[in-house]
């Protein structure tokens, strides 16, 4: 599953197009209706049904499902995984974007392609790779067993798989941004006496902070929702290696529909919260964008 | 000698940006680095600043070799072409940046920034952000920011390129005065010869990575050493066969060479207006262009086309008019050098014709 970030910029310009170059009223109504209808059918209805199903047997069952120790343990594991994987990918993303946009070196294109790899391969394969490497029959399996280190069917494996699947988000968000900004401000800072970390902290970071935050949020959303790769490496041990998405699947397979949808609603709420924060950041970025008034200032 | 550059070379891949450039600059001079776009001027400037590393050659500042000195320690102020102001910082913080990095005390920073705000006429703008300023104001912030840590050498990369014509002229004068007040050695890059001639104490003409000539604007204008400089400075017309022009038929150097004629070397008018009518020949006006303070004439003389100036006060000419054309002097150019040749007929008021 490819999860490229789509950034929508609502521009005032669309509303101000002169009549003769815009489509007729009929075409406009048809286009808008198709878009809305599709959205309702494909996105809104399924999401609503999650909540409807979750509350079908009443609020008691709903809250009982959430208070279930296994559900709580799954929530804890999901959050722990995100707390480890997201900062790792943030650091990696900044480092990769920095290297790609600021330096000239051999193999740059290979690096860019590699960053996209987790988007290109199926998450199941991403999980399988780690089982093949670190599982009991894997390359390092014997050695790990001899030293009593458990990676697969344990937290480290889940974190590894999640990190792998989500690592393009931050880098992908930052690379075009940093390439567009160029190196002039950094050079100016260097000629004024600033050194590596000072330049990063005082000049680079303030310039990329909104893009970075946006990448982190997308990365976090995916880290909490990842199913395929985690499913392969987790082993589905209840109360131990089940993340929220895995827990939902187990409940569903056991015909506990109300409970499974209750837990699912929790994930949906996490996702909606993420989207709200994302929209807020987009709004802030647009409000702060200096380019908008830069050319009118003469 | 304040700045000295010896045999500097720099290539990007197979493209030689700077080739064997050597020059010396005295303290306090304002130097114009002039040449066509893509000629290696900016690369040269960036090497002085330490933003590019030369492939070979040495750079000395105050007699000390600085090739391996990091840009942070060279004591150089750099004004970038697009200013490269820190977008997220106010004017005050932009100017204070170099001092903040050096951990200067708050009070001292405040005093120094205030001084520069006054110097650049930006007092009252210190809380604005770069996007709230006009092009000229941004340029002055960039200038103040570069000056704040009291650099030894100020480098300006196309400082006026992004500013509209009227403001550019004001800024030029302002910059020249300011730099002469401060007495700081400065080098600015430009592709606009009017700018270089007007502002610089001394010019370095750079073309295709090579230094063509160094000297004062007057010197370079009147005594171009190479064919490139002769053609680049001034608005010259190229004459393929100078021997066909009256007065230059018998000069041995004109045979087989090309020549450059500047508009100010050509006198055009009715026969009675010309000082030495006997040294003049007939030509025809092809076009007349109004240039504000004067007229520019496009003249056909035999097989050659020349450009000449004419004052607005003089009797007006029309396209197609028959006129007398006197060529006072021209530059004969061979592969590398340029030689000035005066019209020999002009010297003798009573030339004998056989």
Automatic annotation (TrEMBL), chain A:
Domain of life, source organism: Bacteria
Gene Ontology cellular component list: plasma membrane
Keyword Cell inner membrane: yes
Subcellular location: Cell inner membrane
Transmembrane region(s): 29-52, 72-98, 110-139, 151-171, 212-237, 257-277
InterPro entries for the chain: CysW_permease, MetI-like, MetI-like_sf, Sulph_transpt2
Domain named ABC transmembrane type-1: residues: 75-278
Record-level Gene Ontology MF annotations: ABC-type sulfate transporter activity
Keywords: Cell inner membrane, Cell membrane, Membrane, Sulfate transport, Transmembrane, Transmembrane helix, Transport
Protein topology in the membrane: Multi-pass membrane protein
Subunit field text: The complex is composed of two ATP-binding proteins (CysA), two transmembrane proteins (CysT and CysW) and a solute-binding protein (CysP).
Function: Part of the ABC transporter complex CysAWTP (TC 3.A.1.6.1) involved in sulfate/thiosulfate import. Probably responsible for the translocation of the substrate across the membrane.
Protein name: Sulfate transport system permease protein CysW
Organism, as annotated: Paenibacillus taihuensis
TrEMBL record, chain B:
SMART domains assigned: AAA
Coiled-coil parts of chain: none
Ranges for domain ABC transporter: 3-233
Origin superkingdom: Bacteria
Catalyzed reactions: a quaternary ammonium(out) + ATP + H2O = a quaternary ammonium(in) + ADP + phosphate + H(+)
Pfam families recorded: ABC_tran, TOBE_2
Keywords per UniProt: ATP-binding, Nucleotide-binding, Sulfate transport, Translocase, Transport
Its EC number(s): 7.6.2.9
Gene Ontology cellular component terms for the protein in this record: ATP-binding cassette (ABC) transporter complex
Gene Ontology MF terms in the entry: ABC-type quaternary ammonium compound transporting activity; ABC-type sulfate transporter activity; ATP binding; ATP hydrolysis activity
Cross-referenced PANTHER family: SPERMIDINE/PUTRESCINE IMPORT ATP-BINDING PROTEIN POTA, SPERMIDINE_PUTRESCINE IMPORT ATP-BINDING PROTEIN POTA
Subunit structure comment from the entry: The complex is composed of two ATP-binding proteins (OpuCA), two transmembrane proteins (OpuCB and OpuCD) and a solute-binding protein (OpuCC).
Name of the protein described by the UniProt record: Carnitine transport ATP-binding protein OpuCA
Organism: Paenibacillus taihuensis
Lineage: Bacteria, Bacillati, Bacillota, Bacilli, Bacillales
